[in-house]
Amino acid sequence: MATREVYVSRLQADGLYKVFGRAPDEAVRRLEAGADRGELRADGTTAAVIDASFTVEPGQIFVVMGLSGSGKSTLLRMLNGLLEPTAGRVLFDGRDLTSLPARDLRRVRATKISMVFQHFALFPHRSVLENAAYGLEVQGVPRAEREQRAAEALELCGLGGWAASWPNELSGGMQQRVGLARALATDADLLLMDESFSALDPLIRRDMQDQLLELQKRLKKTIVFITHDLNEAMRLGDRIAVMRDGRIVQLGSAEDILLRPEGDYVASFIQDVDRSRVLTASAVMTAPDRPDAGQCDCPSVAPDTTVAELCAVSARVPHPVAVRDPEGNVVGTVPQQKLVAFVGGDDEPQGRPAACGDAARPAAVKTASQNTEKEAAHA
């Protein structure tokens, strides 16, 4: 009889607690019984992470977002064993990291899990190539091989011509790329990124986000990314965990969190997010509104096209925009009424769907489209 293969996630956190201070085990029992953080703090105990559970699938960017003190960095350090959980466990490819002997855990960190820090952590006395190769050096990889792999990683990160340079000759963004190249050179299955872009100025930060997304398309790494920036979380995350006071208060996609916030805390967090840059055509499309939808030569969009980009297309199309899957099939349409409501129009247009040749354009869609085109021209 054939055995049935059991699927396991790349990473699983199962009821993780981290308590600092006196009697941590007793503190966990009190938390499980309903005590809050404040009660423990009065007794000289800090509950940094409380009952955190989630899974991360292969090739996914999982973002943990929260304000300073929410517990997100402590949580990250439990995922690779830098901090031992007070309770709970971490499974990596089905293997319980929390039960491993110290030697085996160090081996996993050296070969399977890489970390990219907020403050670059480059060695000033080593060249860019030597910095990128450092993780391989720790693994005992021969020099020629590690330099070749490090050079390939630098090329991936856009630093192919800087291998012989010193860290102090590089800008902040370039130094962070070296840190990313060092993590990629080890070919680790899991990347942990702790506020990796927060020390960069806004323009360089966005460039690094673009770089990470582009690399992810090619390499399909599994990434846990820590940030306090909601827009960054929404831009990068396939799934997002929102933390508050040590607890995960909502877990879901960017679309889930924007459209269905759980509680006043999350709702207040997302109120200033530019939803048009996060939500996609799949979130606003409806079933095709007429049998000939998509049969003309007008532009169409993909399901993952952002609403901001969609507005630019809608401004040029005299009827609901067709949404096509990768095979070219029409899976939905986006009526202008939907876009008007989304971008803040006061009144939804009434009457029949427009046909090719109709000239009317809702003002809100026009404005959103013009804004998008101005930003593109500025970029």
Automatic annotation (TrEMBL):
Keywords: ATP-binding, CBS domain, Nucleotide-binding, Transport
SUPFAM superfamilies: P-loop containing nucleoside triphosphate hydrolases
Region (Disordered): 346-379
Superkingdom to which the source organism belongs: Bacteria
Compositionally biased intervals (Low complexity): 351-364
SMART domains referenced in this protein's UniProt entry, alphabetically: AAA
Ranges where the ABC transporter domain occurs: 11-270
GO cellular component, one term: membrane
UniProt GO MF annotations: ATP binding; ATP hydrolysis activity
Descriptive protein name: Glycine/betaine ABC transporter ATP-binding protein
Species per Swiss-Prot/TrEMBL record: Streptomyces solincola
